[in-house]
Known about the structure:
By secondary structure, this protein is of the alpha+beta class. It has helices at about 35-40, 55-60, 80-100; strands at about 5-10, 25-30, 65-70, 110, 115-120. The strands form two sheets. The protein has a three-stranded antiparallel β-sheet, with helices on both faces. It has a two-stranded antiparallel sheet with strand order 4-5.
Amino acid sequence: MPRVNLIILDQPAPEAGPGRSPYRIAFWADVPVSRQGFYANASVTSAWSGATATDITALRNGSVVEEVITFNPDTGATFTAMGATLTTMQATYQTSINAYNPWGYYGTYYVSTATPAWTTVTTA
C-alpha cells in the first residue's frame, strides 16, 4: 500500500488565463499482486522529491504505480473543494489500476507435439 495517495507537486506558471494556474499532481496506487511484475522497473523514480527509499522501492518493484497529471481547478475554488475533487480523482485512478489487465492470458502457449495442447496461464 502506498504511504501516500496523492501529492501536490507544484504550480507552474499560469497557462489557463489570469488567476488560474494548473497544478501538477502525483497519484500513487496499489498494484494487484499478480500484476506487479508487469509494472516493475528497476530504474523508475518518483516525480516527488519527498519520496523515501521505501517509496522508491515500492515503485521499482511494481507494488505501487505513480501517475502525474495536470489539474486545473475551477476559478476561485477553495483548497477544500480542490482536495475533494483530487481525492475522487485518485480513487478513480486506483479503480482503473485494479481493473486494467491486458495480461489476462500472458504466457499462455501452444505445443504442437504428438498430442497438441494449449497450456493456459492466467493473470488475475
